Amino acid sequence: MRKTFFLCLFTFVLLLFLSMAAADVTVVMDTPSVSLGETVLFHVEGTGGEIRYDIYRSGELLFRTGFVTAASGAYIPTASGNYFLRVTDRSSGMSAQRDFTVTGDLKVTLNAADRALSLGEAAEYAASAEGGSPPFTYTFSVRSGSERIYGRSGSDPAFSYTTNAVGAFTVTCTVTDSQNASASASAELRVEDGPGISAESDDTGPFRLWGGVRRYTVHSPGIWTAETDADFLELSTNCGGDGTEMFVTVLPGREPRRGTITLHSGSSKCVITVTRLSDDGIEKEVSLSSSIGDVSVDGESMAVWAGAHGEKEFAVLSDSDWVAVPSDGWIRTEYTENGLKVSVDDCSEPARAGHILIENDMGGTACLSVCQSADSAAPDVTAVSLSQTMGISYEDSITAFVRVDGEADQITVYRISGSEPVAASGASGLRSDGTWTVTFPLEGTGEESYLFAASREGLSGRMMIAHVSAFSEQASFNDLFADAELDGELCTVTVQMTSSIASVLMLDENGREMGMISAEDADIDRYIDENNRGRFSQWTFTVPSDRVPAALRIGTQTLEVVKHVREYPNLVFSQFDGTWDRVKYRHSNLQDSGCAVFTLASALRKLGFVSENASPAALADKYSYCLVDGGTLNSTLVGNAARDFGFRTRYDLYNDRESVEALFAKGAIFSFSIVKGHIALADAISEDGSMIHIVDSAMSATFSRLNNAQAYIRLSDGSFSAVSDPSQVPGALYYIETESWSGGEYWLEAPYVLRRGVRLLMNKE
Question: Regarding the domain delimited by 198-276, which CATH topology (the fold level of the hierarchy) does it fall under?
Answer without folding.
Answer: Immunoglobulin-like (2.60.40)
